[in-house]
Design brief:
- It contains 2 helices and 6 strands, in the order E-H-E-E-E-E-H-E.
- A 4-stranded antiparallel β-sheet has the order 2-5-1-6, with helices on one face. Strands 3-4 form a two-stranded antiparallel sheet.
- By secondary structure, it is α+β, with helices and mostly antiparallel strands.
- A hairpin with a 2-residue loop joins strand 3 and strand 4.
- Helices cover 19% and strands 36% of the residues.
- The radius of gyration is 17 Å and the shape is elongated.
- The chain has a single domain, classed as Alpha-Beta Plaits (2-Layer Sandwich).
Length: 118
């Protein structure tokens, strides 16, 4: 199992959500985050542009079985890519175990319903 974390532009969130749905990733968490990077966002207030040092992004967090890692990465990259600085990053982190609280199932089976196997 792997945890995939993607930091993406807020404007690309709906595209990424749809792309994940097309590769049967039906459940994930997301968070509004701020960071510092090469991209700068200018804010306009009363006609004056202010450069901000922090950038607003969305962090998408997904736990997937090993067989779904590459298709998940590809879906996120294709949907989030604009070709501009500040498109974001994707991180892949090993996950040792998962436990479904309701049933006590552990491992890969805790991530999906066996009756809906792909």
């Amino acid at each position: 199992m792997k945890k995939i974390e993607a930091i993406i532009r807020k404007t690309k969130f709906d595209d990424v959500k749809e792309a994940l749905d097309t590769v049967n990733i039906e459940w994930f968490s997301y968070y509004d985050v701020r960071g510092v990077g090469k991209a700068r966002q200018g804010r306009i207030y009363r006609g004056v542009i202010y450069d901000t040092s922090s950038i607003e992004r969305i962090l998408v967090s997904i736990i997937v079985r090993d067989k779904n890692v590459q298709k998940t990465i590809d879906a996120i990259q294709e949907a989030a890519q604009t070709g501009e600085i500040g498109d974001g990053r994707i991180f892949v982190i090993p996950v040792e175990n998962a436990v479904r609280i309701r049933t006590g199932e552990q491992g890969d089976i805790a991530l999906y319903n066996a009756e809906h196997e792909e």
